[in-house]
Structure formats: C-alpha cells, structure tokens
Amino acid sequence: MKSISIKGQERESVGKVATKAARNAGLVPCVVYGGEQPVHFTAEEKAFKSLVYTPNVHTVAVDLGEKTIDCILQDIQFDPVSDKILHIDFYQLQADKEITMEVPVKVVGNSKGVMAGGVLRLNQRKLKVRALPANLPDFVEADITDLEMGNKLYVTKVPTNNFKLLHPDNTVVAQVRISRAAMKAAQEAAKAEKGGAKKKK
C-alpha cells in the first residue's frame, strides 16, 4: 500500500485550552495509538488533503522531526457547520501484527452481460481486509468479465494475495442487472414470437 508523509509537531499540552489554541492557529490536533504510549501532535490542515479527501487509502508516515511513526487513519472528526477537521486518531503499525482496514474495490474486465445491454451495479465500493502492514493492498480487484445478465460476483470469487477478506461468503461485490430497455426488448420479442406462432396455426 502507498504511504504518504505528514509533517507534524509533537505536543505536550493536551488539555482543552491547548487544543483550542492549536485549532485557532490553523492546526489539527492528532493522536497516535497502538504504541507503548499515545503520541500527541499537531499538523497543518492542508497536510491531510491527500489522505482525507480521496477515495484511495494510504498508510501514513508521521514525521515528528526526531522520529517517524508509521500508522493508518483510524478516526476523524469534522466540525458539523464548517466541515473543518477537528481531530484525527491514528493507529501505529507493527510489522509483525496484522491490521484491519477498508480498501476500495477496483472493477476490471468487460462484462458479457453489460455488453448485452445489462447494467452493472457495484454493491461494495470498499471491502474490509486483514493483513500484515507490508501486505496491505491499494485496492481489491473484482473481475466482472464472466458476469452474464442477472449474474452476481460473490466475495469468494475475488482473488486475495497475502490478505484475508472479512466478509460472509454470500456477500455480493457486483452484479449485472437486466436494464429496462433489455427487458422491454425481450418482452416485445416474446410477443412477436407468440404472434408468429398463432399465424402459423
């Protein structure tokens, strides 16, 4: 999985007054859990653009000058009025410990059902995976090539490489639905066939 770097400054004062002062200065209060002790730091709000405002997922290298902590985004709080970032929680990565996170689904292939007039529906835009940090995928690939009209692609048919998918076997990732136009054409064809059969009699 791709990593992005965020430059921050470790902070010792973590009370309400210090937090408010940090926000007034245009900084986002953050904390990293998962290590021996939580690490509190602040960073400029613009530093999080490529992490928060994107459909992609990344691991994060928090650069605090004397040390760098590899982690993932765990939780984020927004101001309900201004939509500004109020606080971010990160979780520290350990090379030998598996972690769970959601990654995007990437559709590949040309569905036979879609080419025949069906409509593709992506039921799961993200899937929950569990893996060691080094094996976290940027996305999960869903190959729809063999999907005929009315078929479904179940999570059991999605390839996994050094990671596990944490979903029940009956989870539908994508499906090809019969479009209204295709249904109408089928009905009209059936009517025409019936009409032709009556004439023959």
From TrEMBL:
Alphabetized GO MF terms: 5S rRNA binding; structural constituent of ribosome
Alphabetized UniProt keyword annotations: Ribonucleoprotein, Ribosomal protein, RNA-binding, rRNA-binding
Self-association state and partner proteins as the record states: Part of the 50S ribosomal subunit; part of the 5S rRNA/L5/L18/L25 subcomplex. Contacts the 5S rRNA. Binds to the 5S rRNA independently of L5 and L18.
Source organism of the structure: Paenimyroides marinum
Pfam families: Ribosomal_L25p (PF01386), Ribosomal_TL5_C (PF14693)
Protein's name in the database: Large ribosomal subunit protein bL25
GO cellular component: cytosolic large ribosomal subunit
Domain Large ribosomal subunit protein bL25 beta: 98-178
Domain Large ribosomal subunit protein bL25 L25: 6-90
